[in-house]
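User: Can you help me understand a structure? I only have the sequence.
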Amino acid sequence: METLGLMFVFVKLFDGARVSAQINVIVLALNQSFGLLATFLAVLIVFNIAMTPLAQAIWGTYLIGYKTFSDSVASVFMIAYSKGNLELLLEINTIWSLIFMVMYYAMAIFVLHAAFHNT
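Assistant: Let's start by predicting it. Here is the structure, written out as tokens:
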């Protein structure tokens, strides 16, 4: 409870410091950046969840991490976090795994990476 109270005091002090033009410009820039970052993260999460049914269709009968939709979502997010065992996935179904990885990494690297740098 003390942490929550200190946080409110800090926010009020910071908000009061916005009287200064320099601090106000910094706060407005950070506010706009957080809004753009939230939009980017929403698109990233939607893209990862949209790729989940394909991952579940490819690897769901072979791997326990893709049996249910929630497990598949977690596994796709782990691929995004570079913790997926891509060699094992390629061994199971080479053609569809390659299609999944090209789509996934092309979108993530080229489109979403550029969008993140744009924010």
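Now, to help you interpret it: The radius of gyration is 21 Å. The chain has a mean pLDDT of 83. Let me know which part you'd like to focus on.
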